[in-house]
Amino acid sequence: MNQTVDALSQRAGQRRFPLIALVLLVPMAIINLVAFVLPVLRLGQISFMESRSGGVLTGNYSTESYIGFLTDRFSLDLIGNSLFLSLSVTFITLCCAYPIALFLHRVSPRWRNVLFVVTVSPLLVSSVVRTYGWMVILGEQGFVNGLLMSSGLISSPLRLVNNWMGVTIGLVEVLIPYMALSLIAGFGRLDVNLEEAAASLGANAWTRFRRVVFPLTLPGVALGCLLCFVLSISSFITPKLLGGGRVFLLATEIYDQAVIQLEWPKAAATSVIVLVIFGLALAFYSRVVRRFE
Amino acid sequence: MQMVERRGASANGDARPGDSEPAFLKLEGITKQYGTYTAVDNLHLDLPRGKLLGLLGPSGCGKTTTLRMIAGLLSVSGGQIKVGGDDIAQKPPHKRDIGLVFQNYALFPHMTVAENVAFGLEMRGVAKSEIATRVEEALEMVRLPGYGTRKPKEMSGGQQQRVSLARALVIRPRILLLDEPLSNLDAKLRDEMRVEIREIQQRLSITTVFVTHDQVEALTMCDCVGVMSGGKLAQLGSPEDIYERPANLFVADFVGRANALEGKIEDVDTVRFGDGVYKCDTHGARNGKATIVIRPHRVHVTPNRDRTLVSVMTNSVHGRVLRVTYIGDVVQYDIDTGTHVLKAEVHTASGGHAFAAGEKVLCEWKPQDMLVFAGGGQ
Ligand SMILES: Nc1ncnc2c1ncn2[C@@H]1O[C@H](COP(=O)(O)OP(=O)(O)OP(=O)(O)O)[C@@H](O)[C@H]1O
Ligand SMILES: [Mg+2]
After folding, report:
1. What is the CATH number of domain B259-374?
2. Minimum mean pLDDT among A41-45, B25-29, B283-287: which range?
3. Relative to the alpha carbon of B231, which ligand is closest?
């Protein structure tokens, strides 16, 4: 009797499922189409257009923006700078967030929720505000320099802001919660029994970490690195504010091209190049992840 | 249930198996405290080399805690753990040289079966070429030759358990610990693995502690059985000791099925319960309350007849069948004797006499099948 009821409701559920799923997917699909897919296509289109001075699009198509960008020494430096910054920021963020995530994974459930909220709480404050905060902390008369000077460790203030150092510090802080979240999400296979098994087989703490813990957390590491790489290469506000106009990256260049020089095709072409870098990062990620499967 | 000591048999069992053999694994008063709660309480235990000890007990009695303390995964709050004479209680787990098999197998999911088995050998710096041969040997021993290249998740539960056994044994540990290794397997596989583990254990003659809450497992596989209760060892003895000569009411009741009846001791060879007087051995007690335990399958159920008719059994009581439970290999009868309900188990036979509910019967049993625990239970 019960079985029949179950079977019936199951069959009814199966029949209804595609329809409900479609209906539920429609709003998201429309938003994505209008707000993401179409603009990106339009961006691609503009990147192949020509423009006169003053930013007016002529309506002629050419690959001039791309050729111009890829043959320009400064632009190639931009790609190099952006890649280097993003990779180093990603690596430093990983090193900072990994112990936090491991601790959160192991702490008793009672504390885990509280500490979890503490970890992601910086996300409640806009990154603009946090970046201004860093300017205050890292500035010449800022907290860090004040402390170091008054303790007599240094005689003149360190240059911690308006350079690569400032951008790196700011980005790492902004990205730690994202990294920690991704890491924890990818720690599912980590089981304390496995470490105990390794210990009973004669592995000391470092070997247990190297041979068991770290390999099992690689899916989380890969996810976190992808996310932080993409976020940092496309970050704009933090480099703009903490770079003080001395740090040149792809994102800041796109802004200058579009808003200051009014060279829309160039800006669009640069954006497409960033998109290609995203695509490559994603492809690399899925290749890495497939190896864990 | 309150523990009732039986006279003449101490809790630690004077009929300790292999009394003459020196202990290889020696637990000397190990204790584990969680705050004010004592999970394992001053546990003493000796296990001779090459023997298989089954740790049996109800859930939460401290079996896993004891095992983890031996393995070094839990610190001891007190006491010593001696292996071959040296105290290892303060050593970290990776220096103890103890093989461990977990209930959930705990195979490294990112390594192949061969890499899993090789792990302990690598940790010991064994040469590459030797590792390969020893891994293959170990896999052959657990009847999984040629499975080395598989990943653990590509294997069944029973196969994973064997890999886990191979991984623990390949390092030739001084002691092997198994924590309910068979409880995730189905009944048939469990029977198979039981035999296999026992065979391997005897072939390698490795000192082993096997935690289980399954008494069949403990009684059939082990050289000796430790029954635990509330963090203490209620009895340590051979399977036969545990079953036939339980040291106290807890063991009698926990191991095997039992009729526990409240009664009175009349003399050194007589007890009374209900309206009857029965012959038995009270181990010297002459009077006082007692709890009397009779195993259901030691109660013979015969068609109703005069009690005085000749029989090899000395004790008997009339009753009426209340309930009949057919289990397959045995039939269980609940028999109302007027003052007590007595459980009896009879093997089924194709032509055997089966009694129906309501039928009058005569229950008989031998004096030596009555276990008398002076003091009374409740
Ligand atoms: N970390 C802990 N903190 C407090 N009490 C604990 C802790 N771990 C175990 N205990 C308690 O210690 C007692 C013994 O636990 P243990 O795991 O040894 O039981 P067990 O005999 O293995 O039971 P089971 O058959 O259910 O596995 C239990 O009552 C348990 O509640
Ligand atoms: Mg347990």
Report:
1. 2.40.50.100
2. B283-287
3. 1
By alpha-carbon position, which residue is closest to atom 10 of ligand 1?
Answer: B39
Which residues have a Cβ under 8 Å from the Cβ of B225 and sit 6 or more positions away?
B53, B54, B55, B56, B218, B219, B236, B237, B238, B239, B242, B255
C-alpha B74 – ligand 1 centre gap (Å): 12
Contact B228, B66 (CB under 8 A): yes
**Could you give the C-alpha distances from B49 to A108, A141, B34, B52, B53, in angstroms and in order?**
39, 73, 31, 9, 11
Query: What is the token pair recorded at B255?
Result: 């191991």
Alpha-carbon span B261 to B258, nearest angstrom:
9
Question: For the residues of B75-117, what is the DSSP string, one character each?
Answer: --SEEEEEETTEE-TTS-GGGS-EEEE-TT----TTS-HHHHH
CATH (residue range B14-97+173-254): 3.40.50.300
CA distance B197 to B164: 12
- Residue of the nearest CA to atom 17 in ligand 1? B64
Per-residue pLDDT tens for B146-191?
A: 999 999 999 998 899 999 999 999 999 999 999 999 888 888 888 8
Residue B168 to residue A200, Cβ atoms within 8 A? yes
Residues B217, B242: contact at Cβ < 8 Å? no
Q: How far apart are CA A180 and CA A166, in angstroms?
A: 22
The side-by-side arrangement of strands in the sheet containing B78-83 is B37-48, B23-34, B78-83, B86-87
For every residue of A163-221, which 3-state class applies, written as one string? CHHHHHHHHHHHHHHHHHHHHHHCCCCCCHHHHHHHHHCCCCHHHHHHHHHHHHHHHHH
d(CA B169, CA B162): 10
3-state secondary structure of B163: helix
State if pTM tops 0.90: no
Using CA atoms, how far apart are residues B319 and B295, in angstroms rounded to an integer? 17
Least CB-CB distance to B106: which of A193, A202, A211?
A193
Whole-angstrom CA distances from B271 to A230, B54, B275, B281, B373 are 84, 34, 11, 9, 11
pLDDT over 60 at A249, yes or no: yes
Mean pLDDT score of chain B: 88
Is residue B251 packed enough to be buried (19+ CB in 10 Å), middle (13-18) or exposed (0-12)? buried
- Domain assignments of chain B as residue spans, ordered by start: 14-97+173-254, 259-374
Decide if A108 touches B, using CB distance below 8 A. Answer: no
Q: Residue type for A262, please?
A: L
Chain A residue with CA closest to B154: the answer is A293
**Residue nearest atom 6 in ligand 1 by C-alpha distance:** B34
Q: What is the dihedral of CA B182, B185, B191, B197, to 10 degrees?
A: -40
B74: three-class secondary structure by DSSP: coil
Pairwise CA distance, residues B323 & A110, whole Å: 49
CA B124 distance to own-chain centroid? 34
